[in-house]
Amino acid sequence: MLASFDARHRSRQNPTTMPSYSARLAERISQTNTCALVGIDPRFEMLPEPIVAAWREKEATANKQSNSEHYVQINATEEFCCRLIDVVAPLVPAVKPQVAFFEQLGPDGLSMLQRVIRHARNQGLIVIADAKRGDIGSTATAYANSWLAGEDPDAAPWPADCLTVNPYLGGDSLAPFVKAASDRGAGLYVLVRTSNPGAADFQDRKTEGQTLFNGVAAMVERLSVETLDGDYGQVGAVVGATWPQELKELRAAMPHTLLLVPGYGSQGGTAKDVMSATDANGQGAIINSSRAINFAHLREPYAREFGAARWEEAVEAATKAMIADLATGAA
Amino acid sequence: MLASFDARHRSRQNPTTMPSYSARLAERISQTNTCALVGIDPRFEMLPEPIVAAWREKEATANKQSNSEHYVQINATEEFCCRLIDVVAPLVPAVKPQVAFFEQLGPDGLSMLQRVIRHARNQGLIVIADAKRGDIGSTATAYANSWLAGEDPDAAPWPADCLTVNPYLGGDSLAPFVKAASDRGAGLYVLVRTSNPGAADFQDRKTEGQTLFNGVAAMVERLSVETLDGDYGQVGAVVGATWPQELKELRAAMPHTLLLVPGYGSQGGTAKDVMSATDANGQGAIINSSRAINFAHLREPYAREFGAARWEEAVEAATKAMIADLATGAA
Fold first, then answer.
1. pTM (2 d.p.)
2. Among A105, B18, B234, B321, whose Cα sits 20 to 30 Å from the Cα of A94?
3. pLDDT at position B327, please?
């Protein structure tokens, strides 16, 4: 697979010799032999106690700053994220940091996210920034310039390989993101059918026999075909695992579109539900789990077996269990 | 008007004695006697040359850092934004920084945005962070915690009075933002019908005789009624000026909803088009202009009269012209 990678992918769609996002993701899925995606959702109140306690102690003895709790949060979150990345890097193709949890820590939180993203890339992981950005014209370009580095880790302040985007503003709001992604060997996942109950409010509205999400899916598939490299394009779709029938239909309606599937695990989607998202080669989709992996030490059987002190072993066991479960679903 | 402010508004909806966003905005509109809103869109390539040149010279003599162009961008942008704020603060009720232009400057750009927001608040302006965030559950709460300070300028890293949000993920994605806004005397503007041509792609889709944007508008009006303080609630709507007929219909369909109207000026909306958004008291809507005010020194008649050297006079003249134009439209 690797031998033919250069020949098949380089300089096909791209004016430079840069491999595309779809090609790089396909390679990582082949290497790791799984489509499991680990979301990075560092909710401070759920971080393993030993990490937080150690930083509190350090702050208490070293500095007496009035905002020392802020630095405890920054440092403990960074240590947690980087150690989590070290555990999962040999196991999965990609990670998906949830930008909101870094943003709420202010500019220091977003500086820390830069370091976390660079660390993940250095470990060979593909990084999908889950920021759900969306705006028009030059404003959309500014967001793309913020997040879409693609191949070149110096090409954006937060050098992700891929970004999630919101389609509500329409096709001309997606175009600047698609152009930036294509130019840089980066990718996008457009929200199509999300996994939350409220998704039904607007996404499921029927128009001439077609739901709104079908309409968004048709646009995304067209953009995928326009950016095709190998079997898939650079413009993917977010489709929740919580509605297996819709997932199956959307997979069929978007044959050239990479899927990002949230809702497996904590939100109730099973391996059987989600595996219709991948193709016969186990490609074309990545299945996300965040909390169930990040905070495996808080739930059974890992809480009893490992607990907070051995949280990395809990993460590793939970990740391997997810990979095995997804393999069963595919079989 | 001011004398009765406390009696009418304090502790009406809010458990604390904090005045609501809608009450504070109404007060500012009364004080300034206009519904003009100045967007802050610091596109670096359009900043007045003297500001940029001065910072380049300072960087060239003081430091020989490899990333000195980055600091030129940060410093020049901050100086521009703060001086712009000083010019418009006595004239208009509110400003709307476009977060994407700060985000693309990286964490330093977002630190600078904190200072710009604080400066605007200190000048008495209401600050609307145009970030168009949207996500579900605790992730939405994290975004609200990032941006919604409301009355207390220490309550969020970016202490805005108000935030723009995207409704695509549905009602349960708006709920955490609405709760945070109500708790803090802050506000929201939900994207309903945007001003770009692509808005038609999804927002105009007809479902059972109703467009998607009508459906979103109905939800927003309901949320406004639930958070009513005075004539309007805390959950506003973004409705573009580029489709005057839709604007008029949406105003009628959302009688308790504050409107934020983009698309006046550079995008083609006229004073007559937009003034159907306000009520008989000149309240209930704010009309945005960004580029035409920010970069007035680049367009006639201000380019010839003032030029880049006297850009603040150009900003002042353009702002006053907009205020006068809106007053004509209302008459």
1. 0.94
2. A105
3. 94
Q: How many CB atoms lie within 10 A of CB A124?
A: 12
Which residue among the candidates A132, A179, A248, A320 is catalytic per the annotation?
Answer: A132
B190 vs chain A: nearest CA distance in angstroms? 11
Q: Could you tell me which CATH class the domain A25-330 is placed in?
A: alpha beta
Confidence (pLDDT) at A331: 54
> Strands A36-40, A285-289: parallel, antiparallel or unpaired by DSSP?
parallel
Question: Which residue stretches of chain B have pLDDT < 70?
Answer: 1-17, 63-66, 330-331
Residue of A241 and B308 predicted with greater confidence = B308
Which residues of chain B are within 8 Å of residue A114 when distances are taken between CB atoms?
106-107
Radius of gyration of chain A (CA): 20
Rg, chain B, Cα only: 20
DSSP string, A172-237: HHHHHHHHHHHHHT-EEEEEEE-SSTTHHHHHT-EETTEEHHHHHHHHHHHHHHHT-BTTB-SEEE
Q: Is A132 a catalytic residue?
A: yes
Contact A261, A251 (CB under 8 A): no
pLDDT tens for each residue of A33-87: 999 999 999 999 999 999 999 999 998 888 666 679 999 999 999 999 999 999 9
Distance from CA of B205 to the nearest CA of A (A): 7
Topology (CATH) of B23-330: TIM Barrel (3.20.20)
Residue of B nearest to A157 (CA): B106
**Assigned token pair, B239:** 């409705």
- Which residue in B110, B139, B170 is closest to A201 by CB distance? B170
Other Cβ atoms closer than 10 A to A300: 8
Residue A291: predicted pLDDT = 95
| Rounded-to-integer distance, Cα A90 and Cα B9, Å | 58
Within 8 A by CB and 6+ apart from A299, the residues are A292
CA distance B71 to B56: 9
Tell me the chain B residues in contact with residue A98 when contact means C-beta distances shorter than 8 Å.
Answer: 135, 139, 142
Please tell me which residue of chain A has the smallest CA distance to B172.
A198
Q: Write phi, then psi, for B163 (nearest 5 degrees).
A: -140, 140
